[in-house]
Amino acid sequence: MKKSIALLLGFLLAFAACRRDSPETQIQRAFSDCLKAIEASEASAATEVLHPQFQGPESMDRAAARLYLMGLFRREKAGITILRNELRVEGSKGYQQVELLLTSKTPSGLLPQEASRRIFQLLWKSEDHRWFLVELQTL
Fold it and tell me: What whole-number distance in Å separates Cα of residue 118 and Cα of residue 82?
């Protein structure tokens, strides 16, 4: 019985700690999880953070983003290094600008026909206590 109570108390404390995370921390966690999924070549996991009305470059929607990643992962294994990451939150919206170095996990080093350094502007939106990526623009 004591073991069950201790386990329940531990779970409740962990849950309470998660709920107290700042919006910035929640967005950074979602962003980090997405990058890890990309590096692991997991298109479905990488697109979980995308809002149903997601808009990307060249009118890319959520489904197109998933297909793009699936095609990329068949050819390459991507590596991502964050060079700069700026984030501000205003109410239920988060504005993030990141500069990334994209590399390949193959011996050639860089992704073919791609610039290795990219800057992205991201718009996040909070819905039901969860942050979703609504818009991604290449700068």
Answer: 10
Strand order in the sheet with 93-104: 50-55, 130-138, 117-127, 93-104, 78-90
Q: List beta partners, residue 52.
A: none
The CATH number given to whatever domain includes residue 115 is: 3.10.450.50
Find the helix or strand (DSSP H, E) in which 52 lies: strand 50-55
Compute CA 74 distance to the chain's CA centroid, rounded to the nearest angstrom. Answer: 20
Q: Long-range contacts made by residues 66-71, C-beta under 8 angstroms, separation at least 24?
A: 69/38, 69/43, 70/43
What gap in Å lies between CA 106 and CA 114, rounded to an integer?
A: 14
CA–CA separation, 15 and 1 (whole Å) = 21
pLDDT tens string 56-68: 999 999 999 999 9
Model-level pTM?
Answer: 0.78
Rounded Cα distance, 101 and 115, in Å:
9
Is residue 121 one of the residues assigned to a domain?
yes
Number of folded domains that form the chain:
1
